[in-house]
Amino acid sequence: MAEEIDVVVIGMGPGGEAAAGELAEAGLSVVGIEGRLVGGECPYYGCIPSKMMIRAGNSLAEGRRVRGLAGETDVRPDWVPVADRIRSEATDDWDDTVAVDRFTGKGGRFVRGRGRIVGPRTVSAAGQEFAARRAIVVNTGTEPMIPPIPGLADVPYWTNREAIAAAEVPESLIVIGGGAIGAELAQAFARFGSRVTVLEAAPGLLPPEEPEAGKLLGDVLREEGIDVHVGARIGNVRHSAGTFTVDLGGFTISAGRLLVATGRTTGLESLGVAALGLDPAARFLDPDEHMLIADGVYAIGDITGKGAFTHMSMYQAAIATAHILGRDLAPAEYHAVPRVTFTDPEIGSVGITEAQARGKGLSVRVGFTDLSTSARGWIHKSGNQGFIKLVEDSDRGVLVGATSAGPAGGEVLSALTLAVHAGIPVSTLRRMIYAYPTFHRAIDDALGRLK
Question: 3-state class of 65 per DSSP?
Answer without folding.
Answer: coil
